[in-house]
Amino acid sequence: MLTEKNILDIQELQKLCENAEDFSLKLNWEMLKTRESSIDDYLYYEGEHLIGFLALYGFGESYELCGMVHPDYRQRGIFTDLFNKAYKSLQVRECEKLLINAPSKSQSAKGFIRSINAEYSFSEYQMEWKSMNVEVDHSEILLRRASTNDKRTIIDLDVKCFNVSEKDAHSFQRVLNNEEGHRYYMIEYKSETVGKINVHTDDKTSYIYGFAVFPEFQGKGIGRNALAQIVLNEAQKEQKIFLEVATKNENALGLYHSIGFQTYQTQDYYLHKPL
């Protein structure tokens, strides 16, 4: 479990690294702040100063990895040392896949990727909503807060829409349930539950994710209407609104653009194998 000092040191190191290369690291702070053990966090200190940090984020048998090293201390094998420790811990767990996350602009990250057995997997656009007029229809498409009775539907949506295993989908739901500021909404069309959308709020920022509509109900404007309702609700509270979308998902990308989202950064993911 990260201490209060660890959290502050990681935040300070993140700011320093981001300013040095003009990018944003995806450190999944909502997960870092709710850790129940220290098995997934690797810190490198010199005296009182945090020089390097690496985090693992587990979802069932799949893991994501993100980290950083102080710009003045690179090329000294620090990140390699942290990576090797994290990788060793995964070898004794049930881990089928490890994805390494790196901002597209980070040259230092790309250098490390080239030095290990990893191959490009996919990229995500990080998008922010910019003010625009959005119309919604409340007559047939409604949002309601999710209940425990929706668990099975949520799992089915993750499996069918995001191509994840059922075990990983169950694990992901357990992680989300431990987060503060998390809200699940179910999408209803003509009184039938057809999708879901998640919102995580942190101060004046709202993150939309886990947005899915069953394939048989896609292409009917249901998703666009539901997303518009969420955006307007968050905008009324003067929240900044963000989401992410895979760069290859042209349908979703077009939908987000039509509502007023604009891309501000790209995150790349690399598959490390074998485990």
Automatic annotation (TrEMBL):
Query: What SUPFAM superfamilies would the database entry show?
Result: Acyl-CoA N-acyltransferases (Nat)
Alphabetical keyword list: Acyltransferase, Transferase
Domain of life the protein comes from: Bacteria
- Tell me where in this chain the N-acetyltransferase domain is found: 1-135, 141-275
Keyword Transferase in the entry? The reply is yes
Listed CDD domains: NAT_SF
Q: Which InterPro entries match?
A: Acyl_CoA_acyltransferase (IPR016181), GNAT_dom (IPR000182), YpeA/RimI_acetyltransf (IPR050680)
Q: What is this protein called?
A: Ribosomal protein S18 acetylase RimI-like enzyme
Q: Please name the taxonomic classification of the source.
A: Bacteria, Bacillati, Bacillota, Bacilli, Bacillales
